[in-house]
Amino acid sequence: MDGMLASLAIEAVTYVALMVVFTLLAFVSRGRDAFTWSPELRQSALTNVLMLHIGGLNGVLYLLTIVPLISLYHTVGLPVLPESVWTNVPFVLKALVALLVYDFSMYWVHRWLHTGWLWPAHAVHHSDTELHFLSWSRGHFIEQFVIAACMVFSSTWLGFGIPEIFGLALLQGLHQHYVHARLDWNHGFLRHVIVSPQLHRWHHAEVEAAYDKNFASIFPFFDLMFGTYYNPGSAVAVPTGIGNNPDNNVIALILYPFREWGRMLAERRRVDAPVETA
Questions:
Q1: Helix 59-76 with 2-30: angle, nearest 10 deg
Q2: Rounded Cα–Cα distance for residues 245 and 243 (Å)
Q3: Which residues pair with 240 in a beta bridge?
Q4: Which residues contact residue 174 at a Cβ distance below 8 angstroms, ignoring those fewer than 6 apart?
Q5: How confident is the model at residue 27 (pLDDT cuts 50, 70, 90)?
Q6: How far apart are the first and last CA of the chain?
Q7: Does residue 16 surpass a pLDDT of 60?
Q8: Long-range pairs for 225-230: beta carbons < 8 A, 24 or more residues apart
Q9: In this structure, are residues 195 and 219 in contact, taking their beta carbons and an 8 Å threshold?
Q10: What is the DSSP secondary structure assignment for residue 240, as one 8-state letter?
Q11: Which residue ranges make up each domain of the chain?
């Protein structure tokens, strides 16, 4: 009980700190408008925080997911780089390799999440019409389990353990809060090196030209390599969301993938049903 209360206290302090940091960054970017939160934005923020703790993998559940995934990786007998590979390798270089391997893997997992039967689980994240730094918290537990598996498997292949995986998850989480923030920044000469808020907003854009673009989480040169890079300029006024947005509440978001899968299954059965002839 004490551990749970401590975890909740840490998360509460973290959210307050993030809110202060990103509000200040928004003030630098947009001026006093940064302090104005519309009713829609406030509802979105509340839904996203609740979604993290009710419909997603929060900090505690994420940690509980890591150990079984590591065990599964070893049980299946997948390869692991020997420890000797990292002898005398500086920590910074080791961290950079971990981020590169993870983001390369996540690039393809992200593309996979945008297809077929996995899309409804990922669509929950894309349903936020008020994109802001808390939008990263809007994720369905099914999608988050897939992403956690990607991070754990790529890190385990490198020979890393729980401390390194947790550190990688922390770095990724902070960056994801940043790229979802309402900042129309493109990183200038570094725009092809580190994913920016502007680039990621185009990924969320409800604009046909931007569909299935900008899958990289950290390094946009993966999008450049595989032909999915898209950034025509300022994204500050670009609408976000999905075509059939669910209601902006936790229950609707949790149920959304299951309802979509039911609809898709019914449609497939209808198409596959034999046509009766007179």
A1: 100
A2: 6
A3: 205
A4: none
A5: low
A6: 68
A7: no
A8: 226/107, 228/111, 230/202
A9: yes
A10: B
A11: 2-272
Structure token pair of residue 51: 């979604």
Q: Between these two residues, 111 and 132, which has the higher pLDDT value? A: 111
Q: Please report which confidence band the pLDDT of residue 124 belongs to, taking 50, 70 and 90 as the band edges.
A: very high
- Which is it for the CA torsion 220, 95, 71, 177, positive or negative? negative
Whose structure tokens read 């025509």? Answer: 232
97-109 tens-digit pLDDT:
999 999 999 999 9
| Maximum separation of any 2 CA atoms in the chain, in Å | 78
Amino acid symbol at 189: F
Q: What is the pTM of this model?
A: 0.86
Q: Could you give phi then psi for residue 181, rounded to 5 degrees?
A: -70, 155
Question: What is d(CA 115, CA 133) in angstroms, rounded to the nearest whole number?
Answer: 25
Residue type, 14: T
* 3 state DSSP class of 20: helix
User: Which of 68-72, 113-117, 133-137, 198-202 is the least confident region?
Assistant: 133-137
Closest CA to 255 of 134, 149, 127, 155: 127
CA distance 184 to 187: 10
pLDDT given at position 4: 46
> Environment class of residue 35 by beta-carbon count within 10 Å: exposed (0-12), middle (13-18) or buried (19+)?
exposed
Q: How many CB atoms lie within 10 A of CB 36?
A: 8
The Cβ of residue 51 has, within 10 Å, a number of other Cβ atoms equal to 24
Based on DSSP, count helices (H) and strands (E) in the chain, helices before strands: 10, 0
